[in-house]
What we know:
Number of helices: 11
Largest sheet: 2 strands, antiparallel
Strand content: under 5%
Distance between the termini: 56 Å
Helix content: over 70%
Oligomer: single chain
Amino acid sequence: MTLLxxxxxxxxxxxxxxxxxxxxxxxxxxxxxITKVLNFTTGEFVMLGGMLTWVFRTAGFSLVPSVxxxxxxxxxxxxxxxxxxxxxxxxxxxxxxxxxTIAGASVIKGLVLLAWGSETRRIESFFDTEIIxxxxxTITSQVxxxxxxxxxxxxxxxxxxxxxxxxxxxxxxxxxLTGASxxxxxxxxxxxxxxxxxxxxxxITGIVITPITFTGYEVGMLTGLKGLVAAIxxxxxxxxxxxxxxxxxxxxxxxxxxxxxxxxxxxxLLIMILFLIVRTMNFASRTxxxxx
Length: 292
């Protein structure tokens, strides 16, 4: 491959990963802005989408019913998690919620391991595996599905949040939870809705990427953490999360291509650490807490 084709190939790989992290980061933001819950089961929703689709395909269902059943089951699991683990907490705080969702993620991962083993699984591509050549680089139809998912999620959520009464109430709750509650908005219903929506989007993401990256009981945590990095760096906003996720994906793509593929997963965590250090230093300088 020529240098130009290598650059294009690494950029395609990076944009693919960035699109995945963007949708997952949006799932983190949907839950956190309304509930102040750092939902560490987000990555497991992605894993469940792919695994359950494989389960239904193995049971003899065609692809479309398998996808629908997998999304529905993941939404149900996410809503059950909110009902039985998150909502009953009497003295809620972010640390408590974080520990609860980490425990929930461990339970989901353990059950999947017990039920279907540790082997990686795969489902077929949605379309014929035609390869598109672009200046010596290649791109498959399934990768285009990943890009399309990001576009659909972004446009769909933007229209929902800005054009519907329910979406506007959701935005108001994200801005001022107490004020929205005093205005008669049912925060409990919104919390349940956000968990279900995050579960559904996570499952769809997992289904779309499984033909490319495969799936297994342990793929959720790292993928979810990268989405969390995008949400944190992007300021928990949809636009910011998208930009941060795509930048992270490009850094991973070029880093893995030109430096080392073994360091691919290190870049996301390094970016989060550096961002938090810089943010803490800026906060200390503004408040004067860093001065002797």
